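Example record

One chain of 337 residues, shown exactly as stored in the release files.
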Amino acid sequence: MSSLTLEDIARLAGVSRSTVSRVVNEHPHVRDDVRQRVWEVIQRTGYHPNAAARTLASQRSWMLGLVLPRSVSSFFTDPFFPHLVQGIAHACNQYDYTLSLFLFATKDDEDKIFPRISRRGLMDGIILQAGQLGDKLIDRLLSSNIPFVVAGRPFHCDGVSYVDVDNVRASYRATEHLIQHGYKRIATIAGPDNSTVSVDRREGYLKALTDHGWLVDESLIVEGDFTEASGYRAMQALLPARPDAVFAASDVMAIGAMRAVHQAGLTVPGDIAFVGFDDLPPAAHGTPHLTTIRQPVHKFGAKAVETLIDLIEQGTQPARRIIMDTELIVRESCGTH
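Predicted structure tokens for this chain:
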């Protein structure tokens, strides 16, 4: 029975994984009848917790940190992050953890935050949002020995656990959808090249073009920064190149770009078709409704929590790599609904 896991014990006892962990580590906040039921299953199955994991777990605070390298303003204006936090918070509640949120936008912020999140006994583990600033924290977290998982693929991922979607494949599918429906001048509004999300989504766009025998026209590639204003400016820069379709690396940029198209006296999808990425609520509420790649943002957050708990309870090596599925949602903005 040595191959049994906490999930197996939880299923047999009819409780959550975190409850089993609390029982094993003699946490006081467990009902007596539940504690007895779990121990009966453990004794019946001969389950033996990993010794190293128990040593780590015995000093647990039952608190997780979420570290977002964002300014406060962008955190509240970009719909991706509230949905991500909702998924993380819901999972923390489910597994009986307290969530602490840390926002930082500068190196000074990082220097102030790091001693707090890495202090022994304060946090059981950390969820870190990938990005240029977030990636700079990875080496410091590795040396601190605190379990952590990155939300999104970091640039340097040796020994690092992360949860992501297949951004290359999803962007390939979005671009190919436009190719298959007869569009000939397909532009992209890419994200900044300081994040793997941007790099991967641009790669998917380029790969779709080259796989279909198209030459890449650099005048059809403009960079934004995932804000609506940057999508608007990028579309203004693209209009002289006369695209007939645009793949935007986020719904928010697509919405800004469609506004620029309308202000230029053109129509969507009559003159320019659009596909976005995320499928957050604004995608289905605009005019026209936006064709987009749906990524499971809420589930993404929950999976990050579950992966982090696995690292805390079972040890941080080998690193976990979780890749979640996406879906193309076809609506009116690409003229193929």
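Notes: The chain has 14 helices and twelve strands.
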